[in-house]
UniProtKB/TrEMBL annotation:
Pfam families: DUF4235. Keywords: Membrane, Transmembrane, Transmembrane helix. The chain crosses the membrane at residues 7-28, 54-72. It comes from the Bacteria. InterPro entries: DUF4235. It comes from Paractinoplanes ferrugineus. The keyword Transmembrane applies. This is Membrane protein.
Length: 89
């Protein structure tokens, strides 16, 4: 991809990342509600929650974020290829 194409894709990639974070956060909260029946996932500093629950929530949240971000990034790159004929680096 040309240098101009890379620069043009940068703001799109940032916006996609922000959107992916929002989608992942929503998905995590909904999945946590379904899995535990609890509306609030534990924070690392939540004194009322045990280590296992805190670490399980963190692992689930990280996995969901990584999956959504990869899907959004891949979709964005595929769209750029369809529009420009070149894959963004």
């Amino acid at each position: 991809m040309s240098k101009l194409g890379k620069i043009a894709y940068k703001p799109v990639g940032i916006l996609l990342g922000v959107g992916a974070g929002a989608i992942a956060g929503f998905a995590f909260k909904e999945l946590w509600k379904v899995a535990t029946g609890d509306d609030d996932a534990p924070n690392a500093t939540d004194e009322e929650r045990g280590w296992g629950e805190v670490l399980a929530a963190a692992a689930l949240q990280g996995a969901i974020f990584a999956l959504v971000k990869a899907a959004v990034d891949r979709g964005g790159a595929s769209s750029v290829r369809r529009l420009t004929g070149q894959w963004p680096d």
